[in-house]
UniProtKB/TrEMBL annotation:
Name this polypeptide is given: MFS transporter
Pfam assignment, any one: MFS_1
Domain Major facilitator superfamily (MFS) profile: 20-402
Protein keywords: Cell membrane, Membrane, Transmembrane, Transmembrane helix, Transport
Membrane topology: Multi-pass membrane protein
Signal sequence bounds: none
Database matches in InterPro entries: MFS, MFS_dom, MFS_trans_sf, MFS_Transporters
PROSITE patterns named in the record: MFS
Localization (cell): Cell membrane
Gene3D superfamilies, per the entry: MFS general substrate transporter like domains
Domain of life: Bacteria
Protein species of origin: Pseudorhodoferax aquiterrae
Ranges that cross the membrane: 21-46, 52-75, 87-105, 111-134, 146-167, 173-190, 223-240, 252-273, 280-302, 308-332, 344-370, 376-398
Amino acid sequence: MSIPHPATTPSPRQPLAPRAALWWTAAMMVTFLAASSAPSPLYALYREAWGFSAFVLTWVFGSYAFALLAALLMFGRLSDHLGRRRVIVGALVLEFLSVVLFWQAESVAWLLAARILQGVATGIATSALSSMLLDLSPLRASVMNGVAPMVGMALGAVGTAALVQFAPAPTRLVYEVLLVMLAVQVAMALRLPDTVPRRAGAWASLRPQMAVPPAARGALQRLLPANTVGWALMGFFLSLGPTLARQVTGNAAPLTGGALIAAMVLPGALASVAMQHRPAALALAFGANGLTLGMVLALAGVHTHAPVAFFAGALVAGFSMGCSFSGALRTLAPLASPQQRAGLMASFFVCSYLAFSIPALLAGLSTGWFGLHQTALGYGAALLALALVAALGTRALVAAKA
């Protein structure tokens, strides 16, 4: 199946057919995540132009995760009350404005404002788009919700890196491309079907909710180490990874950093597909043990400046993170009733995005004291230790399922 070209679609007054709406919704999710990773290959250019530290860089990066968390907690249930289409259109408009801020950025303050607004837009969109996919095709939604974000992050990183390397004015051109894409998608979002009716309670739904049912607490505690390793590694790669890749490979080409990000996130998308019909306990065991191997390879690559080992570690860790993430979601979901599931998922994603942002911020601070090479080794060693704990913890889950 392919996404319909805007020129061949019916009149704007006619809602999209369910199949077309499904693929356009997936495309919107890809675009949101592509926009989120697009600035990563540009951070080195911004640092050269404005002279800020690695810690400031990771603070700009981390602000996105904190804003996304706040938006997810506050607006995660809003589309249940206002309807999916209205919330998706609003999120796309906010994303468009954030890209305008990136496009016109003249200082770190502009980047920070753009990144915060982008986090809010993505947090609002995440729940609404995921729910729309479930409404349109429950069978395909689980795979699409796992694949689309990973593919989007890879496209954003590699696409931006390619523009930096081969095109003029990369700090403007990449955002101009995104603005065109978002404008088209706003037009298509206006034609998405209304899959849920409007209902009362929109204001009450803005109250942040986090709740872990008693039946899920033990499992969540055992799942957190592996989940933390994967998200913390991704946060490091998306913020400081491109600079580290240039050090390890000795190649200053922007595509080197984009390739590192793609090497982690694309295997994660593949894992979501590969594990969809496997037992959740098997996915967890494979993920935790694979993260251990991936960290060993990546650390060896950093220590010896061996690009093959470094990128192999990213590939193994990325695939393993996808396995672990898939297994975690399928383990937790049955442990909550439908009325408890939103609170449980919110708690899980709060833990995930905290792991995504806070360790990266600490790594940025450490880089100013010890340098990026030593920071990467220390960061990797800490994640390796946690991965070993995760491997031991998942054994209990596997044994319980046996």
